[in-house]
Write a structure and sequence with these properties.
Length: 371
């Protein structure tokens, strides 16, 4: 009789790691980040403060915030060897592929690449947090034959990220809304990309390699990309009536509707989506686009009534990003840039108390064959 435990497809419900980073408590409808409620954090503190909490285990004080802002600002300035490569990428190369290549290239300037200590990994995560927005924005603008914009010293981290993508300095409302979205995307326990990064890190590979693997994971449409597909659907629908017709047709064809449902949030609305819906309402009022809010609200109602499915973060982040002027193909790269804080925290934790991941399989092939 086999001694291999019961098989769980997709490892669903299997505890793969112990962590102090985060927890999805579905029963309490709470996302816990180092002991704090993520929604409360997103409402009250900045993304960089959330990132500091993830990396250091406590919210940064004023001096720590200033030091973190200074370090991040330094890394926002990409080295010439990296920006000079952007024009060499094939024009058909997708944004996640550009991001994956850029992350891998960052390893080239890491003098302590093979140092797995907590201190070194924190520094390298800060390097990534600063460089990722510039890679996302710069590689996109290079492909679009637009000037690559340098960060402005007077702008915050999130405002600079938005500015470098759109070419326009954001208003305070826009910067705050975008910053909140980054916090909501920052960490979510052990999704595929985070797990992929921990698996790679468990081999004692370097943090850039683990992050590169995480980008490749998030590129997959079953993990990332939902926010982009949501916006394409909304633009195709154009009106509430158009969305109703579109959803009816797709549901009749048994097609998956992106932005609804979640492996963890099976019977309730993603609490991050609830907060992002409020942000969409405020932003839509500012920009006289309540029509877009009404379309999204109707879609939420239809899916709840017809399928018992509720919005996840991507459903409301998509129209928020659209109103912020972010190009649709950058939605998933932005998602990854935000999530790098959480993934970095997991990589640090993995390598502090490491055990190589080496699961088993249930063999379903033949036996006893001979040549």
């Amino acid at each position: 009789m086999s001694t291999i435990p019961d098989y769980k497809p997709g490892l669903e419900g299997v505890i793969a790691s112990e962590t102090k980073v985060s927890l999805l408590d579905v029963e309490q409808e709470e996302i816990v980040i180092r002991g704090y409620n993520l929604i409360e954090l997103a409402e009250k503190v900045s993304y960089l403060e959330v990132a500091g909490l993830l990396l250091n285990g406590e919210l940064p004080g004023r001096q720590q915030q200033q030091e973190m802002q200074q370090e991040i600002s330094h890394y926002l300035e990409l080295p010439d060897y990296l920006t000079s490569v952007f024009p060499l990428f094939p024009s058909s190369m997708g944004m996640m592929d550009r991001l994956r290549t850029g992350v891998s290239m960052l390893a080239g300037e890491a003098f302590d690449l093979d140092d797995r200590s907590k201190t070194a990994n924190k520094r390298k995560t800060m390097h990534l947090l600063g460089a990722l927005p510039s890679i996302v924005a710069g590689s996109y603008r290079s492909r679009a034959k637009q000037e690559i914009l340098r960060p402005l010293s007077r702008l915050s981290f999130s405002a600079n990220f938005l500015y470098m993508m759109t070419g326009s300095e954001p208003s305070q409302r826009e910067a705050d809304t975008f910053d909140q979205s980054l916090s909501l995307y920052s960490e979510h326990e052990l999704p595929n990309s985070t797990f992929a990064a921990r698996v790679i890190a468990s081999t004692n590979s370097d943090i850039y390699g683990a992050m590169t693997g995480a980008v490749a994971s998030l590129k997959g449409p079953l993990h990332g990309g939902a926010n982009e597909e949501v916006m394409k659907m909304l633009l195709q629908a154009q009106t509430p009536e158009g969305l109703k017709e579109l959803l009816d047709a797709r549901l009749a064809a048994k097609e998956r509707i992106m932005g609804f449902g979640h492996r963890v949030y099976m019977k309730k609305m993603d609490p991050r989506a609830t907060l992002m819906k409020k942000s969409l309402y405020d932003l839509a009022q500012d920009k006289n686009r309540m029509d877009l809010y009404e379309i999204c609200d109707l879609g939420e109602t239809i899916m709840a009534q017809k399928k018992g499915l509720y919005p996840n973060l991507d459903y409301y982040a998509a129209p928020v990003y659209y109103l912020l002027g972010i190009p649709i193909e950058l939605y998933t790269p932005v998602f990854f840039a935000a999530r790098a804080a959480g993934i970095g925290a997991h990589i640090i934790e993995q390598q502090e108390n490491n055990r190589l991941f080496r699961p088993r399989v249930r063999y379903t092939g033949p036996r006893g064959l001979h040549p």
